[in-house]
UniProtKB/TrEMBL annotation:
TM ranges: none
The name this protein goes by in its record: NAD(P)/FAD-dependent oxidoreductase
UniProt-listed Gene3D superfamilies: 3.30.70.2700, FAD/NAD(P)-binding domain (3.50.50.60)
Alphabetical list of InterPro entries matching this protein: FAD-binding_protein (IPR028348), FAD-depend_C (IPR049516), FAD/NAD-bd_sf (IPR036188)
Segment forming the signal sequence: none
């Protein structure tokens, strides 16, 4: 097959325009082409009046000889290449008489893909997840959003499917992926019920409800292949002898022995971070970001990005990605943008408030939201201890709880009042989507001064790119503190902890992923590393 990239066509092109573009590009007749498939479809909306769709197409010709000839003829054209083989190849298979079962701690996207890949290779992993299975977890999470009853073990952060289960389900990532692991993640998701389009649109998303049923199907496959998953069970201790992990102890008191343990606990497992630090596992403090969620009407964002094409079905609800470098040396950026979604309460500890965002697949809620956050780093902001970033997160989340009125309401302020430094806000046209509720207050008290100054400078700068971004009526809700892990659990080239053999730190919590897709990719890499270590192959 021949892969053509950067084929540009107008937004409202006819279906036949695709085959015409192919035959024109390759200078062949329509009869010479057998078929084609769309591998990727993105868009370029920089010029609102002339929005272009950008395709990557895989073309099959009737004649294999002609395919070879064309690839030679277009050798110097970087947009005409042989279609790469993106199918996944397992690194090995478990021997039938294998007695040791690898343990995977955490059943988020990383633990899920690690567990699934290990199970597919025949390793029968034991997966330990502190939160509940996804249906019960959904009830637990809605219990918090509707009745302010927080279950500290089963919530937005913890439980089957991990942190991204109640999310927009964006599935794109900027990680380099030369081995096409992302394709395996997507293919497994489609097998489990995700829409086929995630395989070809350039910015796929699934939305929260589909994720719930997908996770259940993937769990069923792992169990069918001989894996075991224990929900509502937390790893409270790990055992190390001569710098080699030998097993884990659960909150039930039971000890499981294994020389291969994947640690995929996500960025909110603060007690587990403390436990591994106390055990002497090598960890470092790492940069993360703090800020607020910002909400606008989705129609404001659609209009600013797509003009007269707002509402076009192919384009869907508009998103944005913004960054501003501030005079005080800080950078502010948008993060985890959720078109047509809601701001969610994402606490996992009592008396602390933290925000995040989610959407349904349809993305048809009235507001757009995203985190507007300031980068912070250990050198300047939380020096002296590898876990000091967690203390800072806790401090800001407790402060948000106080400012919200001590009942899990989140502190909020209109953009206009925040920019003017006017403490007594009144809501305008943008209605808050956060549940259980918001308390209007002075948000400048919620973050350190440098962060408040930076966000006050960035919002008007963003308004130059997205008209209406600084609108008086827009709403800020606080606080965002869990953009990524505050620590990094360093590993070597065999994917094992720097000072503990057999411990495989993985995913977002270890600092090796930032999002569902990259966490899934890291899960596959770590599963391969575990398999190679057990099979003693390079
Ligand atoms: P996690 O998903 O955090 O999973 C870790 C799991 O480990 C958890 O289920 C936890 O309960 C379990 N665990 C922790 N400690 C223990 C222990 N001691 N014993 C047993 N189990 C333990 N990313 C995107 O790419 N797109 C999005 O649209 C998106 N939206 C998001 C919306 C929300 C509300 C949130 C919270 C996150 C969102 N993210 C999104 C981020 C994404 O969810 C994470 O990057 C991803 O889930 C990280 O995967 P992970 O497997 O490394 O960790």
């Amino acid at each position: 097959m021949i892969r053509l990239t950067e084929i540009k066509l107008p937004l409202n092109h006819e279906a036949e325009a695709l085959s015409t573009a192919i035959t024109t590009k390759l200078k062949i007749s329509p009869e010479q082409m057998a078929s084609f498939v769309v591998f990727k479809r993105g868009y370029d909306a920089r010029n609102k009046r002339n929005i272009q769709l950008i395709y990557t197409l895989d073309v099959t010709l009737n004649d294999a000889e002609l395919t070879k000839q064309l690839l030679i003829q277009f050798e110097t054209d970087q947009h005409v290449k042989a279609t790469p083989d993106t199918s996944y190849k397992y690194v090995g298979n478990a021997p039938k008489d294998l007695t040791e079962r690898p343990i995977v701690i955490g059943f988020g996207p990383c633990g899920l893909m690690a567990g699934l890949t290990l199970a597919q290779m025949g390793f029968k992993p034991i997966i330990i997840e502190r939160g509940n299975e996804v249906r019960q977890r959904t009830k637990d999470t809605f219990g918090f959003w509707r009745q302010r009853k927080l279950n500290t073990e089963s919530n937005v952060q913890f439980g089957e499917g991990g942190a991204g289960t109640f999310s927009d389900g964006k599935l794109y990532s900027q990680v380099k992926d030369p081995n096409h692991y992302g394709r395996k993640v997507m293919t497994e998701f489609v097998k489990a019920g995700a829409p086929d389009e995630i395989l070809f649109v350039s910015k796929p998303h699934i939305g929260t409800y589909k994720l719930v049923s997908m996770v259940e199907k993937m769990r069923a496959e792992i169990i069918e292949l001989g894996g075991e998953i224990r929900f509502g069970t937390r790893v409270d201790d790990i055992h190390i002898t001569n710098e080699q992990i030998t097993g884990v102890t659960l909150n039930t008191g039971e000890t499981l022995n294994s020389n291969h343990v994947v640690l995929a606990v996500g960025h909110s497992a603060r007690d587990t971070f403390q436990m591994i630090f106390d055990k002497g596992i090598y960890v470092e403090a790492k940069p993360f970001s703090i800020g607020f969620r910002i909400e606008h009407k989705q129609s404001t964002i659609d209009q600013a990005r797509f003009g007269d094409n707002a509402g076009n079905e192919i384009l869907g609800a508009a998103d944005y990605k913004l960054v501003h470098h501030c005079n005080n040396g800080r950078s502010v950026y948008s993060f985890c943008m959720c078109p047509g979604g809601t701001v969610v309460a994402a606490s996992s500890e009592e008396n602390r408030v933290v925000t995040n965002g989610m959407s349904q697949y349809s993305r048809n809620e009235r507001n757009a939201n995203s985190a507007i956050v300031v980068g912070i780093d250990p050198e300047r902001d939380y020096p002296n201890h590898p876990l000091a970033g967690i203390d800072l997160q806790r401090e800001l989340e407790s402060l948000a709880f106080e400012l919200g009125g001590r009942d899990y309401n989140a502190p909020a302020q209109t953009i206009g009042d925040f920019l003017k430094g006017k403490p007594d806000s009144e809501l305008g046209d943008v209605k808050p989507s956060f549940t259980p509720g918001i308390t209007l207050t002075d948000l400048s008290k919620a973050l350190p001064d440098f962060a408040v100054d930076a966000i006050r400078e960035a919002i008007p700068a963003f308004n130059k790119k997205i008209q209406g971004f600084a609108s008086e009526d827009g709403l800020l809700t606080g606080v965002e503190t869990r953009t990524s892990s505050p620590i990094s659990i360093k590993r070597n080239k065999e994917f094992q902890s720097m000072n503990t053999k057999g411990l495989f730190p993985a995913g977002e919590g270890a600092g090796y992923a930032g999002g569902i897709l990259s966490a899934g990719i890291d899960g596959i890499k770590v599963a391969e590393a575990v398999a190679k270590s057990i099979l003693k192959i390079d």
